[in-house]
């Protein structure tokens, strides 16, 4: 193993590179240059970019697990899932393209995967099936990942071109006969309010499924 560099240092540097230049600039070669080592030095720890993304996603999820552990248990599964979704989104938003790095990755730390155990214990004790508990976590995760990817992409695009999402330009482009679409476009509830509303819809769907 190459001396003087650790997997933890690699992941920290990779997250810094992600924040500075984004997902598309994240390569093993660029990371090695930033660490002032040869690319071969990194291959002792990560064999390719996918393994690097696995480690980065695992670190983000490790922080999610720590943050979630500090949240007092709620009154039931709905509070638990809402807290999970909010913590997940918060951690993703700390990093440029934070949600993108999660998609398709494999968690490499068993302690992170075990984060679900106390949730599953509480829910199955109250009558849930394990399959329903697993589906619920997957649904909230998928929703949050998708929401934050869109949220971050729009934010970055608007930063590069402030007129890109101009409501006035959009209304003029739509022309006549779309008053309700225009009204919806002027709600201006992106961010926290929109996330909470959409998360509530997801949780309502889970509750309806449980009632059947």
Task: Please give a structural write-up.
This protein has 212 residues and is an all-alpha fold. Helices cover 68% and strands 0% of the residues. It contains 11 helices and no strands. The protein has helices at 7-21, 28-35, 39-42, 49-69, 77-93, 110-113, 116-125, 130-160, 167-174, 179-185, 192-211. It is flat. The model has no long low-confidence stretch (mean pLDDT 90).
Structural class assignment: mainly alpha
Number of helices: 11
Q: How many runs of DSSP E, i.e. beta strands?
A: 0
The level of helicity is 55-70%
Question: Could you tell me the mean pLDDT?
Answer: 90
Q: If you compute it from the alpha carbons, what radius of gyration comes out, rounded to the nearest whole angstrom?
A: 20 Å
What proportion strand? under 5%
Strand/helix succession: HHHHHHHHHHH
**What ranges have pLDDT less than 50 throughout 5 or more consecutive residues?**
none
Largest sheet: number of strands, sense, barrel closure: none
Global morphology = flat
Distance between the termini: 55 Å
Which helices and strands appear, and what pairs or packs with what?
Layout: H1 7-21, H2 28-35, H3 39-42, H4 49-69, H5 77-93, H6 110-113, H7 116-125, H8 130-160, H9 167-174, H10 179-185, H11 192-211
Helix pairs in contact: 1-2, 1-4, 4-5, 5-8, 5-11, 7-8, 8-11
Note the main attributes of this structure.
68% helix, 212 residues, mainly alpha, 11 helices, HTH-type_TetR-like_transc_reg
Structure summarized in a few sentences:
This protein is mostly helical. The chain contains 11 helices and no strands.
């Amino acid at each position: 193993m190459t001396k003087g560099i650790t997997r933890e240092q690699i992941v920290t540097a990779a997250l810094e590179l992600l924040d500075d230049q984004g997902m598309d600039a994240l390569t093993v070669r660029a990371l090695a240059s930033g660490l002032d080592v040869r690319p071969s030095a990194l291959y002792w720890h990560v064999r390719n970019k996918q393994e690097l993304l696995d480690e980065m996603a695992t670190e983000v999820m490790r922080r999610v697990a720590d943050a979630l552990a500090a949240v007092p248990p709620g009154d039931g599964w709905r509070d638990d899932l809402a807290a999970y979704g909010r913590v997940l989104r918060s951690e993703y938003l700390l990093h440029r393209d934070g949600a993108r790095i999660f998609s398709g990755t494999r968690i490499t730390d068993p302690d992170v995967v075990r984060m679900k155990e106390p949730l599953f214990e509480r829910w199955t004790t109250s009558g849930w099936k394990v399959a329903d508990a697993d589906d619920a976590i997957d649904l909230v995760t998928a929703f949050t990942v998708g929401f934050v990817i869109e949220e971050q992409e729009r934010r970055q695009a608007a930063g590069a071109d402030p007129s890109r999402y101009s409501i006035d330009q959009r209304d003029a482009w739509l022309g006549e006969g779309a008053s309700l679409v225009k009204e919806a476009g002027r709600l201006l509830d992106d961010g926290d309010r929109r996330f909470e509303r959409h998360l509530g819809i997801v949780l309502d769907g889970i509750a309806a499924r449980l009632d059947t």
